[in-house]
Specification:
Layout (H helix, E strand, L loop, with lengths): L6 H21 L1 H17 L6 E5 L2 E5 L5 E5 L21 E9 L4 E2 L3 H9 L7 E8 L8 H10 L4 E10 L2 E9 L5 H7 L1 E7 L5 E8 L7 E9 L2 E10 L6 H13 L13
Antiparallel strand pairs: 1-2, 3-4, 4-5, 4-6, 6-12, 7-8, 8-9, 9-10, 10-11, 11-12
């Protein structure tokens, strides 16, 4: 029997899985919308409005039923079907991941049928909606996953990234100067990207953004950063490249919106 993976390897794999899932969700947006609408439609019909609760990096969270999607807790099955009833969740239940969507720049949530319909029908070329993922608990690791992810990406032998001497929006930019001609079109989509990096005062990667170089307005960007220096949680944003100039503002607004659902913030009590 092979030994279990090191906890840090699991953390890095979780971060990479978050990037992969964001890419997959972009490709199957229509199917995802149908499934999401069906799930929430059933919840509305049964009048199930129990909040999503749990511990996010030692922060107790109490989020409305329409806000947090696909909440995963420590010790839960991931892709497997659950056997038996789900355990009762409390503020002490350890979250490892969940997602949500917000409309930028007003940060509206998918709280009404009208907003959901707006999200579902928005054009991928002009959509104001951004997708957000949180990874915490055992998926957080030692906090060094972004540095390793950048190192791994730049070491890819199928593409030669060069540092552009001109920063963009306060970010260092690595652009592909050569891509192996033997790559398939599918593989090309995974490497023909600009890599944008913001480092802290100690030179560590604070924010890592990967933006596709496809030539249309729906070119996707995936942004990874620490949710907060005092919270052991990763924040993932997925948005169209036209929003890149607002990368820092978006992260700040997402943080503010999410932290209103701290269990001690009181906002949850106002939700009907």
């Amino acid at each position: 029997m092979s030994p279990p993976p090191h906890p840090q390897a699991r953390s890095d794999q979780s971060l990479l899985r978050g990037l992969a899932v964001a890419t997959i969700l972009s490709a199957i947006a229509a199917a995802g919308c149908i499934a999401y609408a069906a799930r929430h439609g059933a919840a509305i019909a049964r009048n199930i409005r129990a909040p999503i609760v749990g511990d996010m990096g030692d922060i107790p969270m109490k989020m409305p039923w329409y806000f947090a999607e696909w909440a995963e807790y420590e010790g839960e099955p991931t892709w497997e079907v659950r056997k038996g009833p789900a355990p009762v969740r409390t503020l002490a239940s350890k979250l490892v991941s969940f997602g949500f969507k917000l409309r930028y720049p007003d940060m509206a949530e998918l709280s009404t049928p009208e907003l959901w319909n707006e999200y579902r029908t928005a054009s991928i070329y002009t959509t104001p909606w951004i997708r957000i993922g949180i990874s915490t608990g055992s998926h957080f690791g030692d906090g060094g996953a972004l540095d390793r992810h950048l190192e791994f990406t730049l070491a890819d032998a199928s593409v030669d990234y060069k540092l552009d001497p001109r920063p963009q929006y306060g970010l260092s930019v690595y652009r592909p100067s050569w891509i192996a001609p033997s790559l398939s079109k599918a593989a090309l989509l995974h490497v023909d990207n600009d890599i944008l990096v913001y480092r802290d005062s100690h030179g560590r990667v604070d924010t890592l953004i990967i933006c596709s170089n496809v030539k249309h307005d729906a070119a996707p960007c995936t942004q990874e950063s620490r949710l907060d220096t005092n919270i052991k949680a990763w924040l993932t944003l997925a948005y169209r490249r036209g929003r890149l100039s607002d990368w820092k503002i978006m992260a700040t607004k997402v943080h503010h919106t999410l932290m209103q659902y701290r269990a001690d913030a009181g906002r949850i009590s106002t939700i009907p």
